[in-house]
Design a protein that fits this description.
The complex is a heterodimer of chains A (92) and B (246). Chain A is of the alpha+beta class. Chain A has two helices and four strands. Chain A is 23% helix and 41% strand. The chains are: A alpha+beta (92), B alpha/beta (246).
């Protein structure tokens, strides 16, 4: 089935797409048919800068366990980052 | 017998007089043939759906697939275009209908056309094919496991799909519906609701629900592909087109 479910997130950072390194501003997360990963459905992540065109996109297609492991790893990494290094991102 | 064919990318004046890309496949050794508008699935104007167009041509039908994502992503790879359109909430129904109408007009203007036109869509295109049949003068409508025909998309989704079953009394043509028994969208229960609505509206329809198949059983390059079911489904499709647009 097509789930159509989509979560959208505003992000700030950079990524490497077909255009090379670029600023990224938006991310969408959804569970639907992958284009390349050989499964009926996958956890899909697109990180983009919509102002730079459709191919300004970094795409991931992950199985659910991989997606959860990645999410956990991201949170763990942030939790363990020295507070001093996170200071530059503190709201002013 | 399969026909010789030619396939090419063309420019089509779509909804709102927009110039959009489209893929046209035609048999070159047959005259007075029926035509079909191929509505691509949500993953886009992709190679597998172009192959579907060529299959129709090889079987003696003109087939035209408008690129529904031309406006947002001209020239983009299908997956990039699909991701962008998805993030923007999908294709508006009114625009879809306008693009299908433009495709119908182009098809009937072809020198080898017999003047009859069908529509077919898979997945999101199944709903759109049904919708087109309710709003345009088609001669046959094929809905392959279209979701959100009988119920609205949930509010939390970015897509604003509304159920179109209420438009069934306006259907212009017989409907062929092909579904997988294991599909969750549409479920067997939702297919039954559509079946009942068409019966109540007095609309000719023929539904097939295949055991052992789920969503996207026609999609040849994905694990959801079910070769035996797809082969049977193609046979049913060509029998249906033979009696409606040939």
């Amino acid at each position: 089935m097509c789930t159509y479910q989509t979560e959208r997130v505003i992000v700030r950072g950079s990524g490497k797409s077909r255009q090379g390194w670029m600023k990224v501003t938006d991310a969408t997360v959804y569970f639907d048919h992958p284009v390349h990963f050989p499964a009926g459905h996958a956890l899909m992540i697109d990180v983009t800068d919509p102002t730079k065109g459709p191919d300004a996109r970094i795409a991931l297609e992950l199985d659910p366990a991989s997606a959860r492991a990645l999410a956990d790893a991201i949170l763990l990494t942030l939790d363990h980052a020295p507070a001093g290094l996170l200071a530059e991102f503190a709201p002013s | 017998m399969t026909h010789n064919l030619i396939a090419d990318t063309i420019s089509l004046t779509g909804h709102g007089e927009d110039q959009i890309e489209a893929y046209l496949a035609q048999p070159t050794d047959a005259d007075r043939v029926g035509s079909i508008v191929v509505i691509h699935h949500m993953p886009g104007y992709d190679e597998d759906t172009k192959e579907i167009c060529r299959k129709f041509a090889a079987n003696g039908y003109n087939a035209l697939m408008p690129n529904l994502y031309s406006r947002e992503a001209p020239g983009a790879d299908p997956d990039d275009a699909a991701a962008l359109v998805r993030a923007n909430g999908g294709v508006p129904d009114e625009r879809l209908v306008g693009d299908v109408e433009a495709a119908m007009q182009r098809l009937t203007s072809l020198s080898n056309s017999n003047g009859k036109v069908a529509s077919i869509g898979h997945c999101s295109g199944g709903r759109q094919s049904f919708l087109a049949g309710c709003r345009l003068p088609l001669d046959a409508v094929i809905d392959c496991y279209g979701a959100f025909v009988t119920l609205d998309a949930p509010a939390e989704m970015p897509f604003k799909f509304k159920a179109v079953v209420g438009e069934a009394p306006n259907l212009s043509a017989p409907v062929l519906g092909l579904f997988g028994a294991d599909d969750q969208n549409p479920t067997i229960e939702q297919v039954a609701v559509l079946d009942e609505a068409l019966t109540k509206a007095g609309k000719e329809h023929e539904f097939h629900t295949y055991e052992g198949a789920g969503h996207a059983f026609f999609w040849v390059s994905r694990p959801s592909y079910r070769p035996e079911t797809a082969k049977e489904g193609w046979s049913v499709i060509f029998e249906f087109l033979g009696r409606t647009i040939s």
